[in-house]
Description:
Layout: H1 4-15, H2 20-27, H3 31-40, H4 63-76, E1 77-83, E2 86-94, H5 98-111, E3 118-122, E4 125-132, H6 135-138, H7 156-164, H8 166-177, E5 178-189, E6 192-205, H9 208-221, E7 226-229, E8 235-239, H10 242-251
Antiparallel strand pairs: 1-2, 2-4, 3-4, 5-6, 6-8, 7-8
Helix pairs in contact: 4-5, 4-7, 4-8, 7-8, 8-9
Amino acid sequence: MYDIGTRKQVLALVAEGRSLNSVSKETGISRASIRSWQLRLMPLNSSTPCPRCCDVPRLPADMPAYSYLLGLYLGDGCISPLRRGVYFLRIACADAWPGLIDACAAAIRASRPDNKVFRVRSVGCQYVTAHSKHWPCLFPQHGPGRKHERKIALESWQQEIVNAHPWEFIRGLIHSDGCRITNWTTRLVSGVVKRYDYPRYFFTNKSPDIIQLFTGTLDQVGVEWKSARRPGGAQNISVARRASVALMDAHVGPKH
């Protein structure tokens, strides 16, 4: 429907850093078409062997980066088929946290060094994406339907990585579906009302399996937590004990 010249002009506008929404409004071309053109122009670099589907399966070379990326994927990621047996991994990252976006891109790059990482802008967020034939190998939790509507379990080799690098896994989950906030309260001390601020961490997800993976890893590193149900079926995990918050601050910290 559109010639090559038109496609190149539209993609040049996107390459300037403009959002798909603004380019679509200016050109009259749908966001879906523009996104499809972006994906079709991605080179299929795949010289680095997949550590899982090679003759002798092994663990990913950069296990801390993989553990972090696994947490991000379970929280805000998805894998979709593209073409010719190629899949693209897409992780949604809010514009409010540019450091998180950079960390996500670095983790993807560490997992598939020869595959380019792209940042697709949308309203209020960026989708950090990369294509590869091997994303289903690296993330066997990929499957049809929403994560909270199907079974999510780690393979033994994934659990080995999480056991070795639990804080990276926790950080990835917090960076995707969690936050660090500061609450406050008042107390009467010697007749004077004083305000006390105290930080706490939250993680919220609808998948009972992902919740169990998160809390099980918290138990492993000695972090105390409490659980509460939220409207809509989501489960909220709270870390509020001073010693546990100190551990989280030392290894996770707020988004930035």
